[in-house]
Amino acid sequence: MTKDKFQDRYRIASARVSWHEYNGGMYFVTICTAARVHGFGEIVAGAMQLSGIGKIANDCFTQASVHYPYAEIPLFAIIPNHIHAIVIIDSNDVDCRDAINRVSTTTPPTTSISRNPMISQTLGTVVRGIKARITRMAHKNNLPFAWQPRFHDHIMRNVAEMNHIAEYIENNVAQWDLDELNDNY
Q: Which segments within the chain are labelled E, that is strand?
């Protein structure tokens, strides 16, 4: 990643690939807590025991399609310091909502969707929204919590690749002792 100047300030270039718009497709996403703190709970006897923040995260991922009707999260795993998820984005034939008032049922012109990151129907909007919702709920409940900036994504190119990743996610808790994000690894 190169650092470019924008308005005389350094900024880090996007981690997203330039040849893909992220407004449709299947993605494997990993988001981590700041400093890899075990904020979501602990693995005890091979099972994830969710903390208060872990329960909030579980609810947010379970209800993602309610807030983002163009997105589906068919599988996710909450691990002590990160979350893995499969996110499917299908922004075709879905009405956008007014991001500020949340009352409009009309679809804004395509140009405003592509320019406004708060209402664009992309992977980044979904992940940013879920992270913000979890953070807001943690702060509302006086639970100390912070995310690592950004997130990792992998564009899945076919169903076979998605099945392989789904198996990895399903076995992630059982493989925690071997996970590179486990600070005891």
A: 3-6, 9-12, 24-32, 41-44, 47-50, 71-79, 82-90, 152-156
The answer as to whether 1 is a domain residue is no
The Cα–Cα gap between 180 and 161 comes to: 21
Contacts of 27 (CB under 8 A, 6+ apart): 86, 87, 88, 89, 123, 153, 154, 155, 156
pTM of the predicted model as reported, rounded to 2 decimal places: 0.75
pLDDT tens per residue, range 104-127: 344 444 444 444 455 678 888 999
Which CATH number characterizes residue 116's domain? 3.30.70.1290
**47: CB partners within 8 A, 6+ apart:** 173
Q: Domain range spanning residue 71?
A: 21-176
Question: Does 37 map to a domain?
Answer: yes
Q: Would residue 53 count as lying in a domain?
A: yes
